[in-house]
Amino acid sequence: MRDEDQFPYPSHLEMIRDLTLGGRPLADLVREVQSIYASDDRPWIIGFSGGKDSTCVLALIYIALQQLPMAGRHKHVYVVSSDTLVETPVVVDMIKRTMDRINASAKKDQVPISAHAVVPKTDQTFWVNLIGKGYPAPNQTFRWCTERMKIDPVSEFILDKVAKYGEAVVALGSRSQESNSRAQVIAKHKIDGSALSRHSSLPNAYTYMPIEQWSADEVWEYLMSAPCPWGGSNRELLELYKGSNQGECPVVIDKSTPSCGNSRFGCWTCTVVTDEKALHGLIQSGADWMKPLLDFRNKLYQSRQPENSKEYRNFKRRTGRVTYNTGDINDDSVQEVRHVPGPYWLSVRKDFLKELLEIEKELKDTGHDIELITRPELHMVRQEWLRDPNEPDWEDALPAIYRDVYGEDLDWVENDAGAFTKADSAILKELSDRYGIPAALIRKLLEAELQVSGLGRRRGILQNLESILRQDWGELDAINIRNQGLRKLGRSYVDEIQQEFSEFLS
After folding, report:
1. What is the four-CA torsion angle of 396, 402, 405, 409, rounded to 10 degrees?
2. pLDDT above 90 for 133
């Protein structure tokens, strides 16, 4: 890897003529790119993560197209970058600057390339799922973030082009030397006699991996041998990699891609890995202002640990039921039954949101214009709280939390609040204490009634009431004792409620 300020080759033409990488002359690879590009009308999509491998592939294709005559530049190449909205801030800034340069340079050079950012749908973002719905921070066994935030946005972009053109070619920076698992995935989908592979999951999409046989050192040799085709150098990219444990985070198009938790090009919120080394490394490199982000990430990680579940997580799942790890609660052969905790308590989610907004405001006040949670996400989180299946937020607390931190209001929709208020909640609590009936149960029954209030036909009301009664009500210890007794009888709580409800209706 070269580390000089002077490029050994003043132009890409000289570099292409002289270098041999991945066991073949670079000029031969450029001709292959041009040949595949010219062979049909299928549009190309370059997956761009901002890392060294995807930057290398993008530069290679850019130069190959630039060397074609104008008549040969007959189809478009889309550069797609996936922003999960929780990317490491310094990387987000670099990728945005790079994409702006690519778009400006491609227009000037008349190269048919355009760069596009894709983001998750608002109801699928990290904060809407974690703070809004209460999903526990991701780990290896429940890595809910990857598909929602990375695979789906890129896949949707690709499928849109497939729908428009019939087929598409996706160019990736994947290399066989990255890992044995990646090498196996690449080999599995390879088309005999072709440089293309079948996409692992998307129909009519094909993948092209021009640097598949390159080593990491060869990637750096290419990147540091000549100026970027869109201007400038890859010096900033090299600096980001220095001291990083892994460094690379490819565009994710399937579930075989490993977590990027140790990468400077992953999510700063990643809790799939035990120790978050990306932010830690950046802080050690002088970015002290990101320490609150690391502290917050570590708090999320601790909230996910089994020994902390009672403090952070509801004992019921979002279905309203208490669940166990057996899969079959009536199975007498199971000797040990472990309780599976549910989503974060609403009070925990409120604390998370307030701290996140406080960090965001502190960063802005100190000159870092970073939006840690978008305003559309805040509106969606509010909706999730109001409709929460276990703890609906009758107080409508989110606008007050935002006002407490920022001293102002967003443009909240007034009629978004639920049918009940804080005063109603206090009355139900008093009735619950007096009669020994869970306030949450009364609230759920009233909500079911209000949903059909005023309708000529109250279709489905009995089924809704039965569904509510099937949920687990009361404290966890009492529920565990009841379910243990039912297991010995070969029955479940659902069986009991269904029988009682049938007897009530008969």
Report:
1. -110
2. yes
What is this structure's pTM?
A: 0.82
Instruction: Give a yes or no: residue 419 inside a domain.
Output: no
How is residue 231 written in tokens?
């201007």
**Over the range 338-356, which residues count as b (16 or more CB within 10 Å of their CB) and which as e?**
ebebbbbbbebbbbbbbeb
Give the model confidence (pLDDT) of 187-229 as tens digits.
554 555 467 888 777 888 999 999 999 999 999 999 999 889 9
How far apart (Å, rounded) are the C-alpha atoms in residues 222 and 68?
20
443 in Cβ contact with 428 (< 8 Å): yes
C-alpha to C-alpha distances, 170 to 82, 206, 207, 256, 400, nearest whole angstrom: 14, 6, 5, 17, 46
Domain of 30 in residue numbering reads as 12-122+142-235+249-257
Task: Tell me the Cα Rg of the chain.
Answer: 28
For 31-70, write each residue's pLDDT tens digit.
999 999 999 999 999 999 898 999 999 999 999 999 999 9
pLDDT at position 327: 52
Residue 29 is part of a domain; what is its CATH number?
A: 3.40.50.620
Q: Please give the angle made by the CA atoms of 343, 300 and 243, to the nearest 5 degrees.
A: 145
- Split into its structural domains, the chain has a count of 1
- 141-145 mean pLDDT: 88
C-alpha dist (Å) from residue 193 to 180, 190, 265: 23, 9, 34
In a domain, 68, yes or no: yes
Does 66 map to a domain? yes
The dihedrals phi and psi of 47, each to the nearest 5 degrees, come to -75, 115
At position 338, the amino acid (one-letter code) is R
Handedness of CA 276, 280, 282, 283 (dihedral sign): positive
**Tens-place pLDDT, residues 326-379:** 654 455 555 567 889 999 999 999 999 999 999 999 999 999 999 999 999 999
Token readout for 307 is 């020994």
Give, as one character, the DSSP assignment of residue 317.
Answer: -
**319 φ/ψ angles, rounded to the nearest 5 degrees:** -75, -10
For 313, which DSSP code?
A: B
> For residue 408, is it within any domain?
no
